[in-house]
């Protein structure tokens, strides 16, 4: 049996630098976006969310550095146990009271969001299994359906928590990994068609979703209801102009955009840092995707390739959806902007995943 961890090279420093830039921007912008609400809200402390995000960043970076040193091949052995543990955690959320109608968190002194773990567990499972699948992946029933069932199971549990956005991310990333592993395009197109029809049906037969979709087409039709958040986001982006109104000087964060430090933080970036700031964020994410793809191409084996592309895809899909929602390019849904939106669980687990990605970059094929 091959031993991969005898001689580890250096990490992809470019990728590491990109990750640290995103985390740094996130901590700064969370403070800027949340300071007004935190000071005048129940916390009475303008640095409340800064402290939380800063602590999560420190913990996440420590865990990322630790993960960088662990040979990613060792994950194969613990993947089945992690899958079972994740299912237990996803079920445990129902033992806690809902927040805004959703049950997404386990609160035991600190808040843990199991859906943030689930999306990476699905990637670990698929990379492990598909690396041994070979040409069987070209079969619809043996190469596609089993993964749709497993991913669908985890996505279904996440959906029951009222977290449709992360459930959708799980399924989209599943299709990406299947495509990269060699699944036939016609099989994946058929699955996309079915998912698309199911999505249309889900919107049409659910009055609330239909109303939200119609508000996306014309948010001013219900400017004080379903269209309110998008209108305020567009006002923030528009008032920022090219150069922005200045860091910390956003007006929309003053109780116009609900919880501006979360899913709509990109709107505050646009208002304070302008078009230039938005372009910079998009470019940094594009650089991340580029280095992630390079890491997957240069990986030592198929397992590393699929693991790297899966981890990269999660960040890429989430960033794309978040920016599309904030700019009014798709219906409003709650997907955080990776590394930047406020959220301890999201940041910590994302950084741990980055440690795995950086470990893969250390073990390049020769």
Automatic annotation (TrEMBL):
<feature type="transmembrane region" description="Helical">
    <location>
        <begin position="302"/>
        <end position="325"/>
    </location>
</feature>
<keyword id="KW-0961">Cell wall biogenesis/degradation</keyword>
<comment type="pathway">
    <text>Cell wall biogenesis; peptidoglycan biosynthesis.</text>
</comment>
<dbReference type="Pfam" id="PF01098">
    <property type="entry name" value="FTSW_RODA_SPOVE"/>
</dbReference>
<keyword id="KW-0812">Transmembrane</keyword>
<feature type="transmembrane region" description="Helical">
    <location>
        <begin position="164"/>
        <end position="181"/>
    </location>
</feature>
<keyword id="KW-0328">Glycosyltransferase</keyword>
<feature type="transmembrane region" description="Helical">
    <location>
        <begin position="82"/>
        <end position="99"/>
    </location>
</feature>
<comment type="function">
    <text>Peptidoglycan polymerase that is essential for cell division.</text>
</comment>
<dbReference type="InterPro" id="IPR001182">
    <property type="entry name" value="FtsW/RodA"/>
</dbReference>
<keyword id="KW-0573">Peptidoglycan synthesis</keyword>
<feature type="transmembrane region" description="Helical">
    <location>
        <begin position="12"/>
        <end position="33"/>
    </location>
</feature>
<keyword id="KW-1133">Transmembrane helix</keyword>
<keyword id="KW-0472">Membrane</keyword>
<keyword id="KW-0808">Transferase</keyword>
<comment type="similarity">
    <text>Belongs to the SEDS family. FtsW subfamily.</text>
</comment>
<feature type="transmembrane region" description="Helical">
    <location>
        <begin position="337"/>
        <end position="360"/>
    </location>
</feature>
<feature type="transmembrane region" description="Helical">
    <location>
        <begin position="53"/>
        <end position="70"/>
    </location>
</feature>
<feature type="transmembrane region" description="Helical">
    <location>
        <begin position="139"/>
        <end position="158"/>
    </location>
</feature>
<feature type="transmembrane region" description="Helical">
    <location>
        <begin position="188"/>
        <end position="205"/>
    </location>
</feature>
<keyword id="KW-1003">Cell membrane</keyword>
<keyword id="KW-0131">Cell cycle</keyword>
<protein>
    <recommendedName>
        <fullName>Probable peptidoglycan glycosyltransferase FtsW</fullName>
        <ecNumber>2.4.99.28</ecNumber>
    </recommendedName>
</protein>
<feature type="transmembrane region" description="Helical">
    <location>
        <begin position="264"/>
        <end position="290"/>
    </location>
</feature>
<keyword id="KW-0132">Cell division</keyword>
<dbReference type="InterPro" id="IPR013437">
    <property type="entry name" value="FtsW"/>
</dbReference>
<keyword id="KW-0133">Cell shape</keyword>
<dbReference type="InterPro" id="IPR013438">
    <property type="entry name" value="SpoVE"/>
</dbReference>
């Amino acid at each position: 049996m091959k031993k991969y961890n005898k001689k580890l090279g250096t990490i992809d420093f470019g990728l590491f630098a990109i990750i640290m830039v995103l985390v740094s921007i996130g901590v700064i912008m969370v403070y800027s976006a949340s300071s007004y609400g935190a000071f005048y809200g129940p916390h009475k402390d303008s640095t409340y969310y800064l402290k939380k995000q800063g602590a999560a960043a420190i913990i996440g970076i420590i865990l990322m550095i630790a993960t960088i040193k662990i040979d990613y091949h060792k994950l194969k052995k613990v993947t089945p146990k992690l899958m079972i543990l994740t299912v237990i955690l996803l079920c445990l959320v129902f033992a806690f009271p809902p927040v805004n109608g959703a049950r997404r968190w386990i609160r035991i002194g600190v808040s843990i969001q199991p859906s943030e773990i689930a999306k990476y567990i699905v990637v670990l499972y698929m990379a492990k299994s598909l690396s041994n699948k070979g040409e069987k992946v070209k079969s619809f029933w043996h190469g596609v359906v089993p993964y749709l069932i497993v991913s669908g199971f985890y996505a279904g549990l996440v959906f029951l928590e009222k977290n449709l956005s992360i459930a959708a991310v799980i399924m989209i990333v599943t299709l990406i990994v299947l495509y990269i592993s060699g699944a036939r395009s016609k099989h994946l197109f058929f699955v996309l068609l079915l998912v698309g029809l199911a999505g249309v049906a889900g919107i049409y037969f659910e009055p609330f979703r239909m109303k939200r979709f119609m508000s996306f087409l014309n948010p001013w039709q219900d400017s004080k209801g379903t269209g309110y958040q998008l209108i305020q986001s567009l006002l923030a982006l528009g008032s920022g102009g090219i150069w922005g109104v200045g860091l910390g000087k956003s007006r929309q964060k003053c109780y116009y955009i609900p919880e501006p430090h979360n899913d709509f933080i990109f709107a505050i970036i646009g208002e304070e840092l302008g078009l230039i700031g938005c372009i910079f964020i998009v470019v940094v994410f594009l650089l991340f995707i580029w280095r992630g793809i390079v890491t997957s191409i240069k990986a030592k084996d198929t397992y590393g390739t699929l693991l790297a592309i899966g981890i990269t895809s999660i960040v890429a899909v989430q960033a794309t959806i978040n920016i599309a929602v904030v700019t009014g390019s798709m219906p409003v849904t709650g997907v955080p902007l990776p590394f930047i939106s406020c959220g301890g669980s999201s940041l910590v687990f994302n950084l741990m995943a980055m440690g795995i990605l950086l470990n893969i970059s250390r073990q390049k094929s020769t």
